[in-house]
Amino acid sequence: MFFPRHFRLRLIPSLMVAVLLPLFLYLGYWQLQRAEEKRLMQSEYDTRANGPAVQVEGRVQRPDELQFYRVVAKGHYETGYQVLIDNRVQQGRVGYHVITPLKLQDSEVRLLVNRGWIAIGADRRQLPAFETPTGLQQITGVATVPAEKYFTLAQPEPGWQRVWQNMDMARYSASVPFPVQPVVVLLDPADAAGGFIRDWSRLDAGISVHQGYAFQWFMLAAALSSIYIFLSLRRRDAGLQEEKES
Predict the structure, then answer these.
(1) Which end of the chain, N or C, is less surrounded by CB atoms within 10 Å?
(2) End-to-end C-alpha distance for the chain, whole angstroms
(3) pLDDT digit string (tens) for the chain, length 246 residues
(4) Contact 130, 79 (CB under 8 A)
(5) How far is CA 79 from the centre of its chain?
């Protein structure tokens, strides 16, 4: 038997929906906006990385002049301020990324080059041995700007350390007696300039992550609206019964 229903406005549920529904919708649209920003970043990366190589200049350049570009530079490797970035994983094995400064030809500016991955060895107390080529080198690779925010297990000890948890450009620039370009070049896998294992992954700007978050917020908004409507629609006979009892 069909019983007609009517909408009954309830104060507290209505106030909750009035607050939460716009919030859920705002968060969903905000995540879509973030996804669009990341899509533009991804497009810019692909355009720059697949374009002609850009020559690194002898002056300190702005990060946006080099970031994401495929760059080329000439100079000499210097081992004195070489660092190993710890806890880098390659096919399930733990090791280091080798970051070597390249003294640019006819300049005092250094360019940091990530020469790739090496295994950690049998004992952490002894750093692995590896070679650094001498003489004039020409390097090619994609320029990246390391993240400024990262997770660290402990604050670095004072003084120069060869093993770092993360590539901190500000810390590096403050620790060395020479100017440094604000990027790290991922040495091209085909480059013979003293590289190790270089299985670089294509930049993932995280577009799908933001789209997934947006979907979740919109689903919460839809669920909230559905529950509110369902609870507010009462059978007419039930409403009359409540009025009689009251």
Answers:
(1) N
(2) 26
(3) 445 666 677 788 888 889 999 999 999 999 999 888 888 878 877 877 788 889 999 999 999 999 889 999 999 999 999 999 999 999 889 999 999 999 999 999 999 999 999 999 777 778 888 999 999 999 999 999 988 755 555 555 666 789 999 999 999 999 999 999 999 999 999 999 999 999 887 766 678 888 999 999 999 999 999 888 888 776 544 444 454 454
(4) no
(5) 28
| Whole-structure pTM value | 0.70
Alpha helix (H) ranges present in the chain?
Answer: 11-49, 63-66, 169-175, 207-232, 236-245
Tokens of 203: 């930049």
SS (H, E, C) 127-185: CCCCCCCCCCEEEEEEEECCCCCCCCCCCCCCCCCCEECCCCHHHHHHHCCCCEEEEEE
Nearby residues of 160 by Cβ (< 8 Å), 6 or more positions away: 81, 175
